[in-house]
Amino acid sequence: MQVDGACLCGAVSFRAEVEPGRVFVCHCTDCQTHSGTAFRTTALTDRDAFELLSGEIREYVKTAESGASRALGFCPACGTALYGGPGPGTRGPLSLRTGALRQRDALPPVAQVWCRSAQAWLERLDKLPRIERQPG
User: Is 67 left (phi over 0), alpha (psi -120 to 50) or beta?
Assistant: First the structure.
């Protein structure tokens, strides 16, 4: 499935090819910290299937729990997280941040990973009142 996306300010835009069966919710503490919330949803793509259409992406390289380096791509202007991937000199897939994808509604997760770090209150989320817009 071809997808396209952009950062919040519009400076960075991209497109990629993803398989809908490779979409995950990640509960690791790095994703919690980097997203500013309880988890992150990602769609895997091959690095060769990712095309930058406009702008420039900056990367922060983080050492993961495994000891491997992870490159976290983001817009240098607005900070929107765009992807995570292998560190410099390493091959492997990119984890596109589905929040930056225009087709995010068509990419439901198929599994959750790093559940040992999941916030316990997520189990009660469906019981909370739903408010359709920002409360006044």
Answer: left
CATH numeric code, 2-119: 2.170.150.70
Is there a contact between 51 and 45 (Cβ–Cβ < 8 Å)? no
Q: DSSP readout, the chain?
A: -EEEEE-TTSS-EEEEE--TTSEEEE--HHHHHHHTSS-EEEEEE-GGGEEEEES--EEEEEE-TTS-EEEEEE-TTT--EEEEEE-TT----EEEEGGGBTTGGG---SEEE-GGG--GGGGGGGGS---SS---
Q: Which two tokens stand for residue 48?
A: 């060769």
Q: What is the pLDDT of residue 105?
A: 96
Structure confidence at residue 82 (pLDDT): 97
For the whole model, what pTM was predicted?
0.88
Contact yes or no for 5/80 (Cβ under 8 A): no
Q: Where are the domains of the chain?
A: 2-119
